[in-house]
Amino acid sequence: MATTVISGDLSLDVINQSQRVIDMDDKIAELEPNASPLVVLLKKLRRVQAISPKVEWLEQVLMPRYDTLSASATSAATAIPVSQPTYYRVGDVIRDTTTGEAMEVTGVSASAIGVNRALGATAAASCASTDEIFIVSNINAEGASLRTIKTTKLTNQYNYCEIVRTPFGVTGTEAASKLYGGPDRARLQAAGAIEHMRDWEQLAFFGARKEDTTTSGAPKRASGGLVEYISTNVTNAGGALTEAAFQTFLRTGFRYGSDRKVLFASPLVIAAIEGFARSNLRVTNETASTYGVQMSTYVSGQGIVDLVMEKAWNDSSTYKGYAFLVDLDAVEWHYLRDTKLLENRQNNDADKIEDEYLTEATVVVKNEQKHSLLKGVTG
Questions:
Q1: In 10 A of CB 144, how many CB atoms?
Q2: Rounded to the nearest 5 degrees, what angle is found at the Cα of 290, between the Cα atoms of 203 and 261?
Q3: 264-300, pLDDT tens digit by residue?
Q4: What is the pLDDT of residue 293?
Q5: Residue 286, exposed/middle/buried by CB under 10 A (0-12, 13-18, 19+)?
Q6: pLDDT category, 27, cuts 50, 70, 90?
Q7: Contact 371, 327 (CB under 8 A)
Q8: Which ranges in 238-287 belong to alpha helices (H)?
Q9: Of residues 227, 221, 203, the one with CA closest to residue 160
Q10: Between 164 and 232, where is the model more confident?
Q11: Summary mean pLDDT of the chain
C-alpha cells in the first residue's frame, strides 16, 4: 500500500477523519523505536562534543606485511620483482605464501628486492606473478648497526557537521479539536523524533561529504557516511551469500580492530546468515537488548558478530543486498548541536503551531581498515 504524504501544516481537511472521537480504541500505533540502531549506539557509547563544523583527525596505519609479486621469477633468481618495494628493508625475513619458501632481503631497488633464497629448511621455488609475499620479521647479526627506519605517514581525515531539520505543524483549529490518540502536536512530536533519527541513520551509512555555498553565500555542509570511508575491505557477493563467502568476508573484516563488531545488515542478508548459521548452532536464538537495539549474536572463528537489522534497506533494489561490519571502537558521533526539539517556530502572525527537531552533527569513521562493506547479496 502506498504511503500518503502530506506537504505543509496538518489541517482539518487533510487529517485522517478516523482520528475523530468515535467508538474505537483510543490508540494510534507509532513507528517502531528500533529504526536508528547505529545512531542510538553511537549516541550512548561514542558521543563527542565538536568545536567546529569541520571535524578533523589524524590517522596512522601499521607497516604493511603483505605484498604481491609484479612479475614471475625463477627458482634461481636473486632479485624478486615486487609491487611495493618501499615496504621492505634489508634484513627482512619474507615468505612466498604460495610456495612456502622463506627468503632474506639483501637489498631494495625501485622495482625489486634482492634476496637470499631458501632460508632455513625451505626449498627454492619458481614464483608466479600472482604470488603473495608475507613480511614475517627481520634478522640481524650480532653487533650490527641500526637497520633502516621506516614508518607510515600520518594522514589527515575530516568530515563535516550536517544540519538536519525535521519540521512539523498543525493549524490552530486542528490543535483545538479533540482527536483519538490525544493532541496531534504531541503525536507529531513523537513521530517526528523517530523520523529525524531515521534520517540520521541513513546519513551515517550513505551520506555524501561535501561543503558548498548557497546562492546567497551561506555555507552548506553535508556529512559523509561509512560508505564513503570504507575502501579497503569491500566484498561484492554477486549473488547468494554462502557461509564460506561470509567467512571470507569476516576474515578481512577482523584483520584489524576489535574482536567483537556489529554487522548492520538488510533483512535479506540477515536471513541468509540465519539460514546457514542455524544448521551449525552458531547463532544464539535469543536476542539481546543493548540500549534498546535488538541484536542476535554470530560466533565465528574470526570474532564475535552482533547482528542488527536495518529494515529500511529492504525497500531498495540495491541496498537490500548491503551489510556494514562496524568496529564501534573506531566510530564516533560528533555533535556541534545535538538533537533538540525547537517549539513554536511559526511566524508570529500565523494561526498555527510549528515545531522542529534540529541536529548539527557528523559521524567520524576512524581507521577504515577496521570496518568492512558487503554488497551484492541477492539471497
A1: 9
A2: 65
A3: 999 999 999 988 876 544 444 444 556 678 888 888 8
A4: 81
A5: exposed
A6: very low
A7: yes
A8: 243-253, 267-277
A9: 221
A10: 164
A11: 87
Q: Are residues 173 and 194 in the same domain?
A: yes
Q: Is the pTM of this model over 0.90?
A: no
Ramachandran angles phi, psi of 136, nearest 5°? -80, -55
Q: Are 124 and 76 in contact (CB under 8 A)?
A: yes
Closest among 338, 327, 136 to 232, alpha carbons compared? 327
Q: What is the pLDDT of residue 180?
A: 66
Residues 349 and 270 placed together within one structural domain of the fold: no
Q: What is the DSSP string of 315-379?
A: G-TTGGG-EEEE-GGGEEEEEEEEEEEE---S-TT-SEEEEEEEEEEEEEE--GGG-EEEEEE--
- Which segments of 31-157 does DSSP mark as H helices, in order? 37-45
Number of domains in the chain: 3
Does some domain include residue 145? no
Grid cell listed for 296: 542476535
3 state SS of 62: coil
The Cα 306–Cα 293 span in angstroms is: 11
Same domain, 237 and 370: yes
Q: Indicate the burial class of 313 (C-beta count within 10 angstroms; 0-12, 13-18, 19 or more).
A: buried
Partners of 333 in beta bridges: 47, 363
Strands in 102-108's sheet, in edge-to-edge order, are: 66-68, 132-138, 92-96, 102-108, 112-116, 79-81
Q: Which three cell numbers stand for residue 227?
A: 560508505
Write out the DSSP string of 198-214: HHHHHHHHH---EEEE-
Q: Are 247 and 372 in contact (CB under 8 A)?
A: no
Q: CA angle 217-168-201, nearest 5°?
A: 75
> Is 247 found in the same domain as 111?
no
Residue 18 lies in a domain: no
326: closest CA among 275, 292, 278, 374?
374
Instruction: Pull the grid cell for residue 184.
Output: 496531534
Over residues 297-313, mean pLDDT: 90
pLDDT digits (tens, 9 = 90+) for 96-110: 999 999 999 999 999
**Structural domain boundaries enclosing 307:** 233-332+366-377
Could you tell me if 371 and 263 lie in one domain?
Answer: yes
